[in-house]
């Protein structure tokens, strides 16, 4: 562990879904990398609140491409590095019980297939062959993308962390960044509660807290956290493969998604409506009666299953539902990787590699196209449909 005052090529603020894979790829590229996090260990921010869903089936082409790359990384990780990150390729299924959702999903599929995704629309009967326990009443059909899946956010982030350390990256925990150091219009390092570290590149990967970090150098990042509720049930015998997503808005909630974990539990997550904005992560069970009704409407078989634990976590939201990845125009060397919304875990490896190419000045033409869409300077007006 380097003492305060040491020099690095890159300092990353935040050892979460983005910071840990970014450290792995930066260290692999031979850069002297320091990751600082104010909590005691890796992945303890929004990362550990994620339920582990990983899909490339987005409506935005950039997210599709980044997540296709992430899926390659997650799905081959154990084979290459030996760490079990609980990757399961169970697929994703977006269900439609009303014409609106059927129309919207079919429209997105056209774009997704053009981008090379393996996704199809299944009518009611074909969908019931894949997910026999869906409520058949009024079911119109749904999408099925068999190559999507899920993995453990804690195991995966820990795997990136451990391999990054083997490659020479350093992680300092219980160390909060309190200031960004600058000299002549460019970044020169960071100050923490323990001292200062010098580096020509500082990456803001502070998740829901990224705006606070931006504020240290008067950069107003539009990252506004909101609270999402989750829960896990008791374990039951295996009966369900894909993640089920219901995008139909209902009273008090918008999106709702759930899957059966490889160890048998059902894990589910709800997007409250109106959103609960701010940093409140105190878990409640107040949402359970609402979510139970919703769950039984989609899958009546879950009627008697018992919920074992609830939690609440933060989505680092941007106004248009797309992440912010790019160099800050106001301060050379300050790289922004924030606002991952509800998809930071699945974006992690793809974004980590992109950040590395940016720091190494090795961006491809495709990267430059991505960076226009993810630019911190964009107008944030077009909202992604499957955000
Ligand atoms: C209920 C729920 C379910 C979700 N499900 C999924 C899912 O299925 N799939 C998916 O892809 N995503 C999911 N997400 C979203 C995902 O969790 C986030 O998008 C992702 O974790 C954001 O990653 P991050 O690295 O930007 O932030 P984080 O993982 O929060 O990392 C940021 C880190 O920065 C640190 N930090 C902040 N300020 C400072 C400072 N001043 N000094 C030092 N360190 C600092 C924090 O301690 C934290 O560890 C879910 C989120 C929630 C809440």
Descriptive tags:
alpha+beta, six-stranded mixed β-sheet, 20 strands, binds flavin-adenine dinucleotide
Give me the secondary-structure topology.
Layout: E1 10-13, H1 19-28, E2 33-36, E3 53-54, H2 61-81, E4 92-96, H3 99-114, E5 120-123, H4 124-130, E6 141-145, E7 149-150, H5 153-166, E8 170-172, E9 177-183, E10 186-192, E11 196-198, E12 201-204, H6 210-215, E13 224-235, E14 243-246, E15 253-260, E16 265-272, E17 276-277, H7 288-298, E18 307-317, E19 324-327, E20 334-338, H8 344-359, H9 365-373
Parallel strand pairs: 1-2, 1-12, 2-8, 4-14, 12-20
Antiparallel strand pairs: 3-7, 4-6, 5-6, 9-10, 10-11, 13-16, 13-17, 13-18, 14-15, 15-16, 19-20
The chain binds flavin-adenine dinucleotide (FAD).
Describe this structure in words.
This protein has 387 residues and is of the alpha+beta class. The protein contains nine helices and 20 strands. Strands 4, 5, 6, 13, 14, 15, 16, 17 and 18 form a nine-stranded mixed beta sheet that branches. The protein has a six-stranded mixed beta sheet with strand order 8-2-1-12-20-19. A hairpin with a 3-residue loop joins strand 10 and strand 11. Helix 1 (19-28) runs parallel beside helix 8. The radius of gyration is 21 Å and the shape is globular. The model has no long low-confidence stretch (mean pLDDT 96). Flavin-adenine dinucleotide (FAD) binds next to strand 13, strand 18 and helix 8.
